[in-house]
Amino acid sequence: MFETVILRIVHYFLTVSTFLSSWFYRIPSLFHKKSDFGVRSDARDLEKLPLHIGLLVLEDEFSYKDIANLILWSAAMGISYISVYDVNGVLKRNSKLLYDIVVQQQKCEDAAKPKKEIHLHIVSEDKEVSGYKHSAGTELYLLSIEDGRKNIISTAQHLCRQVAAREMRPSDICPNQIDALLQDHFNCPDPDLVIKFGDVDAVLGFLPWQLRLTEILSLPSHWGLDYKSFRSTVYKYGYIQQRFGT
Amino acid sequence: MSWFPERQTNRTWVHRFCERVLKSGPIPKHIAIIMDGNRRFAKKKSMDRAEGHLKGFDKLAETLEWCLNLGITEVTVYAFSIENFKRSKEEVDCLLELARQKFARLLEEKELIQKHEVCIHVLGNLSMLPRDLQELVADAVNLSKHNTRAVLNVCFAYTSRHEISIAIRELAEGVQVGLLKESDISEELLEKCLYTNKSADPDLLIRTSGEVRLSDFLLWQSSFSVLAFVKVLWPEFSIWHFYASILHYQKNHDAVQSVKQSNRMNLDHQQRESDYQCVMREVGRTLDHSNCQTLVQQYAKDRQERVNKFLQYVDSKRNQFFDDLAEKRSVSS
Q1: What are chain A's domains?
Q2: Is residue A153 within 8 Å of residue B185, measured between CB atoms?
Q3: CB nearest A205 (choices: B170, B180, B224)
């Protein structure tokens, strides 16, 4: 009984301190809006920019406006592949709504500048929803838990079919081949950086196979996130050195 | 230092008190650890790399003790990745030599393993190791395989992608020899073909040295694990860092459990759906409701039997590997 009370108090203090630090983090933003141009010059300062960024929205409520901002900032920095993940696929189901908001926000920005086209993909439906495939632009993927372990299972079934049809032997199955099949399916490289939004410190089913060397960073919430916090997280990625086991 | 220090390393009343407090909340059953930072530690203290790795091993022994005291019954550690074979020959040799010494030591301390009732599994592509080390490993595994109080999984010559490929290979073989149908392949079945088939997924994954990636470790199994990235280098990991990680786990416990549970329900649902589809394909579409239900139930029963038979086959094949090695060792010695 006594121990339970102490543990409660400890956790209470932990919660308060994380809450305070997350607010402290937001103070410097000062409602300052940065234009697309500034974003691009920020990206130039970076030594290393992710090719593929994963945004894991692990909160119960979604702010489409803030998610759209995140997508546009990433695109303006020059990141070519953006995937947005939520466990239950809420964003996937509301892809139209999200995409419209992205396009709308993009229009609101400086009208004089050329804009990157954003192509929306929903992998499990096997089709590209919006944008022209062959024009240069940013590829946006909406993902859910279904695209993770379940996809490895479909790949396994595919390989088993081939083995049953004597097109290959079980001993031919190797990591590179599975990787190639999954790459084909998603048509994008593995994410270099994942940013988690929310209190939960777990990846909650996000693409297990592709998460091999991904840097996992967190921000307390995507709600009302300002550009500076996002930028400093991408900067943090820029400073990380990878040694690849050697 | 031995695997199980006989003398409790200065466990004061403060530690006992903290343990009691922590135990009043949820405690992870299984934790996974990436013990990173031995080399940076050696460099910082300007010692030999080998000595850094040795310090890392001592820390592991200490951590195992902390886990047992808290009631954590399973620990999985990343000792050596397949990628590590790319390091300089000198360092690879040194790491393998350390492993050789430690497994030999483990065999010398038979009574201690039995006393602590710890079961040791070695997960990975053991055939990549030198023959003598393989035999030592097999001996240690065979010696401890009946222990049930706690489990230590040592990932050696391991990467997660390799593990998943091996599991898929196993499944393909099952389909090829006719033990399995392609539609029997599910997340649950693949999990049972992974090296970790005897363990539940880790509840908490700790990585030291401030790196924030999984580096091909338990990619599949850690989908719903609480992640604790700790800034200190592994040899500097103290009991306070350990307690803090447990607190971190407790903070995340409810949120992760609820997602895990709903995922499990989803999987059950998908399995029933898949059984139903399979029956429909077999008998055609004209079926009345009551008849359909019994057929689906029968199908599910048959599927379970197929799966069990297949898993027995996989299990016996894997046990055979260790038995063969142990046998050869006893013949040669």
Answers
A1: 31-149+185-238 (3.40.1180.10)
A2: yes
A3: B224
